[in-house]
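ok trying again, last paste got cut off:
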Amino acid sequence: MRKKRMALSAALAAAALVLVIPVRPGTPPTSIIPEGTSWVAHLDMDKFVATKLYEYLDKDGRLEIKNRDITRKLKIDIFKDITGLTIFGLEPGDERIVFAASGKFDKKHLMSLFMDTEDHKEIPYGSFTILALDRHGFGAFVKDGLFLYADHREDIEKVLDTAAGKAKNFAASKLNAIFKDVSSGAFISGVVEDLTGLGREIKQSKFVNKAKMLLFNAQEAQDSFQLQVRVSADSPESAQDMADIARGLIAMAKLGLKEGRETGAASLLLAIQVKLVENTVSLELNRPSREMVDILSHHPRALRELLD
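nice, full thing came through this time. structure:
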């Protein structure tokens, strides 16, 4: 019985990734993100599904949902019903993350699933109701189509206070201003105000040690996958050091290929262009979408290796 309750609660928690009315395409839902948020990432599912990259990934089976029981239980087609997903950190790192998603869903059905859990709990909070998901986090409908999910109740409350106008949102923040530089065609984008405040694992990178703000976005143009990562430093000298580190990694990848040590990460590294302008380093990748899918299919750990 306990396993059944946990599975259902996990399914309801997964619903947090898909239960939101559409926000303005290509942008995070500014009105619910609190002032002082440390980082924001946004996926525009409509734009992603319209790409050749998605088409190739789908045909190759790379987008197969592992647990179809969950999607059937929730009555959700992830790539058709979701229009966007926004994830933001109320503090540096990954301890206080909030999820919000946009899409079409059956609220009545989802609420019935919640009510069927043995330990479900509804907590009144102003004009909202917080849903305690059987010790698996907290959710809340901001309005009929807007749902939030977080591990901590206080984080849900902070976002609800922002949505209600009781607290300032991040509209006037530096973080949101940076988002205006994101390409209008991007299907995924993100901004980190200060990389040095992130978790221990990312701090181990020599590149990150010299970095401050990060902006990334990915789009497709003429059947080519285009990724740009822009990192700022506190001085031109630090930016030069970061550019040198990036170019050094590319040189090592070239050497590895000459010695016959071909990896997916090496293939991606060779395609990256490094650009330096004053305090900012840009890493740009532009490859045919079909080629990107082939690399990921033959080297599924390529992106992780590249980040490492």
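cool. The chain has two domains: 2-170, 194-307. DSSP finds 14 helices and twelve strands in the chain.
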